[in-house]
Amino acid sequence: MIRDPLNALIPHLKTGGRRVAMPANLDDVTTINHDRECRPADVGLDQAAIDKIWEAVTAYYRTGLHPALTLVIRRHGKIVMSRGIGKAHVGASGESLADHHLLADADTPICLFSGSKAVSAMLIHKLSEEGKLNLDDPVMKHLPAYAANSKHRTTIRQLLTHRAGIRAMPIEDVTPELMFDFDAVVKILCDYPPIDRPGRDQAYHATTAGYILGAVAMAASGETLPGLLKRIIADPLGCEHMTFGMPEDRRHEVALSLSTGPKRVPIVSDMIAHLLGGVEEGEVTAAINSADGLSAVIPAANIYATAEEACRFYQMLLDGGRWNGRQVFKPETIAAAIKPGKLMLDRSMNAPVRYTPGFMHGEKLWSLFGFNTPKAFGHLGFINILCWADPERDMSVAFLNTGKSLAPEGFLGFGNVSRMISQVIPRDGR
């Protein structure tokens, strides 16, 4: 039973557009990994706290904006929630496809979109730890062509903190397909001048910085990006699905992304198109789902992972770089990666944002991670994917969603989930 008034209200605030049909009984599309979930009391919680979080998730699902939602929460290192709701394969009009029986759960691989940035950033931090680069190196040290047009002073750190001045592609008529040509994007970004003032202006780099960071990582290491991801993160954490794109023989396991809700929402649609360099959000989901999208390497946008794996990644960061007794990253490497910068106006989002070298940071009053989350760090992924760790709550979270919608009730429902998590899990962790 939904007890929170906001949970009861959200599913009824429908602004039109495509929706996923709701089953009469949500139990028919709900998966709970009872064998993984510990007793709430084992981590200082009660069942009511878990119920409230899940009520917020099911209210969000009832909007019809998401074919699938998956959630994993660890507290004190133990899994307290490992769940999914909805179906992995849903077509453009909301109907189920051939694998309509395939329910989404915590082991379903989903594209992290911009949540990929945090994972890719840690590849750079590991190469720094290994002495193969320094965050304050000029990019041109590893990628000489990047020195063109007054970019010779731009540093790797500026790329990681969205202060490199390349918030969008500097050409007209950008198509989603351009994202699949790694070398072409790198050449364009090397050849053209920055859009903003490197080192001075802060403006979210939706995909651009990822290509340059990827080129730097390959030049500094002599390895491919898929190889680096496998060696540095996926293998040490035991993540079989954490890859750039998805191999052809495993694509049947992927939960497809879907554009839902109204096609255009005043102000919001223009803001998203601005962030994406003029590309519409519906074009992005179609491109990511394509064979070319699943074969591409897009460092800032197409790492796939399950909710369990994404949560495992953040738990490792929360534990100072350790996983299952293995030191994956040195503690000082983690500390450098999550060290917050100044709260600054972001020229892309037109809002104050605080970045670390690779992550978004929480705030005392409110942030993406809920209320009173001044030590939290994580990353948003294309509107409504959110993964984070909160040291004060000794908690790691992965909330993965396949619906991409600009509907106001979607933003409200999404924020309500992180609000509820921050509200019912106390700051008594560390």
From TrEMBL:
Q: Which InterPro entries match?
A: Beta-lactam-related, Beta-lactam/transpept-like, Diverse_Enzym_Activities
- Pfam families attached here? Beta-lactamase
List, for all copies, the residue spans of the domain called Beta-lactamase-related.
66-406
Task: Give the domain of life.
Answer: Bacteria
Q: Protein name, please?
A: CubicO group peptidase (Beta-lactamase class C family)
Q: Which organism is it from?
A: Fluviicoccus keumensis
